[in-house]
Amino acid sequence: MTMGNNKTPFEQYSDEPVFNIQAVAEQTDVPALTLRAWERRYDVPKPNRDSQGHRLYSERDIMVIKWLKRQVDSSMRIKQAVKLLHSQKPQHLTSSLAPAPGIHVLEEALGNRYDSLVDELFTAIKGFDYTRAQMILTHALSIYSIEDVCLGILIPTFALIDSAYQENEITLQIEHFGSNLIRARLLGILTTPATHSRSGRVVVGCAPHEWHEIGPLMFSLFLRRRGWEVIYLGQNVGFTGLRETITELRPDVFTLSITHMPNIRYLAEAAEITAESTNHRGIFTYAGQVFHKLPQMIDKFPGVYLGDDLVKAVETVEQLLNQRWRTPPYEPPVLPEGMTAALRYVCQQRGTIEGAASAILNDILGDNIEAETTNLALDVISTLTIALQYNDPRTLMLLRAQDNATLSTYGMDVKRLPEFAEALSDYFSHEAPAGAAGVISDFLMNLKPPQ
Fold this sequence. Notes:
The chain is α/β, with parallel strands linked by helices. It contains 18 helices and 7 strands. The strands form 2 sheets. It has a 5-stranded parallel sheet, with helices on both faces. A two-stranded antiparallel sheet has the order 1-2. Helix 9 links the parallel strand 3 (201-206) and strand 4.
C-alpha cells in the first residue's frame, strides 16, 4: 500500500494481502462498514482484491487501521487523521512519530519521551502558547493511548504547574490557563459519542463547591474506554435535585470527587441519596486528594473509598460492577453525649456561627484588604463540623498544615490561627450550651501548633 508524498507508513510490516474484511474488523474493532467508507472517501486503507473481487488486507493495512482508530478515539476527525498519516515517515505503531513543526521529541526510552513532552507542554503553558500546547497534546495522543497520555504526561504536567505555583514561579493566571486548556481537551474526548459494551452504569461528579475535575474526568474516560456506560455530571454538583437525578439514572455506582477538606461534609448526604434513590442497589464511592491526609478516618466515612491511584480506582469500580455487591446500610459513628450536643448546636446555629467567625477574622485581618474572611469562616466551621461528626479533632490540624494552600489563598497567614482559635473559643464559651462549649473549645485547640 503506497501513500502520498512517497512515504510508506509502517513499511516494516508485511504487505501481503491475506486477511478478509471480517477478520480485519475483528482485529481492529473497526466495523466493516466503516472500513469501506474510509476506503471510498479517503482511499485508505487500499486493500487488494481476490479473483472474486473480495477485499484482502495485509498486516500493514491492519497497523494503519489501528493507528487511524487511535486518532479517532482521541477525538481527531478521520479526515485529519488521514492527513496526519500521509505526513508521517515510516513508523511502528507504538514508536515515536516524526515530530510536528515546533515539537522536539527525544529518541530515547519511553519514560524520557514522556519527560520531554511534559517539559514542552509545561513550557508552552507558561508562555500562554495555546496553539503549541494543543499541537503537543495532539501529537501525544497520536502516539500513545489516552491512558498513557493522562498518566505519563498530563498528571506530571499538573504536578509541575502546582509546584511552580506554590513556589511563586508562575502566576495564578498561568495555572488557570493550563488547567482549563487540558480540562477542555479531556472534556472534548469524553463527550465524543461512544457505545458501551458492558452492562453497568456509573455516574461521576464533583461535590458542591468543587471545581477541580481533572481526576474525575480521567477516571470517567478510563471507565468509558473499558466499555462501561459513564454519565459525567461535572463540577460543583449541587444537591438540589440530586435525589431526583439519581432516582432517574439509577446508577450501579455513584462516585463523588472531593479535593477540598470542608466538602467532606457532603459525604453522608450523598451516600444517603444514593441508597434511597436506588433502593439500596447503587453503590456510593468517593475519591480525592484530601483523603490522602485523613487515612485514620476512612473507615468512618460512608461508602467505598477508591484510593489514591487512578488505575486502581477504576479497577475497584469494575470489581464492584462485576460482583454487583450491595453496600450495607451506613451507620454513623456513635458519639459521646457532649459531642452529640456540640454537633447539634453547630449544625443548628451554623449561619450565626459563620457570621461570628467572619467578624472575628475581620478584626484579626483588618489590615489585609484582600482577605476573604467569609469564605475562610465557612471553611473553618465546615471543618469543625466534620471533626465533630466523625469524632476526630485531628481534622482541624490540616488547616494549619504548611502544605495546605487554603489559608494563604484566602489571605490568612497560618501563624495567626492560634489568635483566631482563642477568639472563636471565647465566642462559644459565651454563646453555646455549657456541655457543647467545652467540647468545641477542646477541638479548636487543634488549630494551635503543639507546644
